[in-house]
Every structure is written in C-alpha cells, then in structure tokens.
Amino acid sequence: MTFPLTGIKVLEFSEHGFVPSAAAALADFGADVVKLERPTGDPMRQIHANRLVPEADGEEFMFELVNRNKRGVALDVETAAGRAVFERLVRWADVYITNQLPRVRRKLRTEPADLLAINPKLVVAKGHGQGQAGPDAEAGGYDGVSYWARGGVAHVLTAPDAPEPTMQRPALGDVPTGMYLAGAVCAGLVHVLRTGKGVVVDTALLNGATWTMGPDLAYSSLTGRQMQMTGGGPRSPLVNTYRTGDGRFVNLVMLDEARYWAPACTAVGLPELIDAYPDAASRRSAWGELGDRFRAAIGALTRAEFDARLREQDCIFSFYAVPEEVVGDPAVVDNGYLMAHPTRPGLRLPGAPAQFDDAHPVMRLAAPALGEHSREVLRELGYDAEEIDRLVKDGVLGSPPPA
C-alpha cells in the first residue's frame, strides 16, 4: 500500500537519538527523509565504539535503530557553497526537523525565522532537552538527564530501598518522545494543508517525561506528596504480581473486578471464594487474605498450567517477559512489530507503532553511510555532475568514493 506520508519530504539536521527517532517514524510512515550530517558525521555512529551501548556479538545496531529508511547527505553548511545547497534543500522540504541548540541555530542561521523566510510553507520541528523557554532553554539535554532523571521517571521506577537510582535503558526516553514529536509534525502538516502557512512545533524530552508521568504529577500537584504504589497496604488480588511454581512471575490486571472475580477464582482453583466474597465491599475488607490465597494457589501451578487455565477463563494477564522472548512473541511476529533489516540477516528493529489498512512499516533502506546519497540527492535538486564533483573536491560535500 501507499503509506500516509508518501510524497512528504523531510530534511533532518539532527544528531543522537531523540530527534532522529522522530524522523525515522516519519520515514516508516512513508516520508522521504534526507538526513543531513556534518562532514564528521552524527556522533551516534560512534556510540558502540565509545562503549556507551554494548555491541550485539560484534554487531552495531543503535545507529540503524533511529536512522533506517533515510537517505544521507554530508554537507559543510558553514561554507558559502554549502549554505547554497542547504537553502535548496530547505526549499525542497515540507518538514525540517532538528535538535540543534539555540546558539548553534543562531550561528548556522537555521532559526525558524531563517527557514520560513526560505520556505514559508515549512513545518519546522525542534526537539529540546528542557524546552524552548525557561532558565535551561539554552542548555543541552540527553534522555538520561532530561527525561529519566529530571522528569522523575527514574525515581518512581527505583525500589524504595535501592542504594541509588536505577540506570536507564538505552534511548528509553528518546524513542517515545521522538514518537510524540513525529505526531506533532503530522499535526503541523495538517495546519499547513488548512492554512497554507508554515508552523513551528516544539517537543522536549522533559515534556515527554511529564506526559509519561501524568498520574504521578497530577497526584503530587494535589497533595504535595509522592503517590505510593507499594507499602500502602494490601492490593486487589486481581491487580497484582504472583509467581508460579516453576518460578515465572506473572502480572494480573483485571480492573473490572465484578466482571472478572468469578473467572479468576475459577482459573486459579479457588471457586469457593466466588460466593464467599460476592461484592466489592467484602472483597476489599479481605484483600490481604485473598492475596495470600491467590499467591498460594498460583504458586502450586506451573507456567503452562496457569497459562491454560487463565486463557480458558478469558482473564487478562501476562508473564513478565525478557527481551529475547519479546522478539519471538507470536503477537509481535504476527503483527509485524519488528522489521527485518534489508541487508543484515537476523537483525530486527521495531517499526513505528502503527499500521495502516493492516500494512505495517517495513525497512526499505538501511541506515545510510556518511554521505551515501549526497550525489543522488543533489542531482534531484538540479546540480549537474561537474558541480557535484567540485563540491566534493572542495570538501563541501561528503560522498563515498564510487564503488
């Protein structure tokens, strides 16, 4: 099928994980994304070499994760010739997306006003650490700082008795906030369609955290305290974690207790509890005892037994999976949530989380080598071979030597 953003042209001038992941989502949805890099390249290319993220048995994957389905151009925009190419790219684009700091944008003349003067119908999308206003608007930010630490996510996901905050997983804030920025870009495209005028959209890693932390922040805004999810007394036996007899943890989440009380009791082998605790009040007064009964009953079952019984009763649950199990999860495989890499057998990367008319994103292109498509893109912009060769010779345009 033709994906919704087919025909939309995106110029990405960004680095690391957050904003490149937003552009990757737009590419997954069909956009033609050109990734513009300095001649030295996106530092994300070195993340494995710098041991910030381990390789996978010698295989690199992080740059691929956030840069698949893009074409790559390497350009020195600080030269007059490079600036001319850049402005032609801006005229070509429907969307310009960046995470450059304000001082860099001022230096390179890539502020929204500069870009909209070149292309008045442009969607200018900016990703920030903390936001476009406030005391830290000029400061940088990575997801480990702006999302994980400052946004409070680390605190609520760290056990109360832990000696230090839990370390975040790679790109844990970059990828979801990138998806939020991609959504904002799509809204911006609708604005241009309706008004004929360009628009500036902004999203920050800290803002991604505040969205994620909505229930916690709402509670704290009302009480001035933290919401306690542990240590506050017994919980409903239907919304709790248990362990099977063969050691697998399982999460029950059946919020509609009236509906699921009888099926859950039947599934775990406690049918006598159905009539003994017929209403919410009687169950709530005995949550502690009921939790103990469920814990003992589930602890006597194997994973396979538990799985079969709860499925038969149409209960809502899941075992706690490890990543290698998620890769092979039938729901993940059958719904196409992981895309096969076009040139690296075995590598699977998550596609942007949406399907259109039952079609899921696919990897059309591997992440580009530095300047891999420089010549191709400039030809599309109207440059002839002699002009392109001169730009390469002068060090303005980066392009791999012909194969």
Search tags:
alpha/beta; CoA-Trfase_III_dom_1_sf; three-stranded antiparallel beta sheet; 403 residues; Rossmann fold; 19 helices
Task: Outline the structure in words.
Keywords: Transferase. GO terms for molecular function: transferase activity. InterPro entries: CoA-transferase_III, CoA-Trfase_fam_III, CoA-Trfase_III_dom3_sf, CoA-Trfase_III_dom_1_sf. The protein is an alpha/beta fold and 403 residues long. It folds into two domains: 7-213 and 335-396, Crotonobetainyl-coa:carnitine coa-transferase, domain 1 (Rossmann fold); 237-321, formyl-coa transferase, domain 3. 41% of the residues lie in helices and 13% in strands. It contains 19 helices and twelve strands. It has helices at 18-28, 62-67, 80-92, 102-108, 112-118, 143-149, 153-156, 174-195, 205-212, 214-223, 257-268, 272-276, 280-284, 287-299, 303-312, 323-328, 330-334, 374-380, 385-393; strands at residues 9-13, 32-37, 70-75, 95-98, 123-128, 199-204, 239-243, 249-253, 317-319, 338-340, 348-350, 397-398. The strands form three sheets. The protein has a seven-stranded mixed sheet, with helices on both faces. Helix 6 (143-149) runs parallel beside helix 9 and helix 11 (257-268) crosses helix 15 (303-312). The chain is elongated, with a radius of gyration of 26 Å. The chain starts with 8 loop residues before the first strand and ends in a 5-residue tail after the last strand. 33% of the residues are buried. The model has no long low-confidence stretch (mean pLDDT 95).
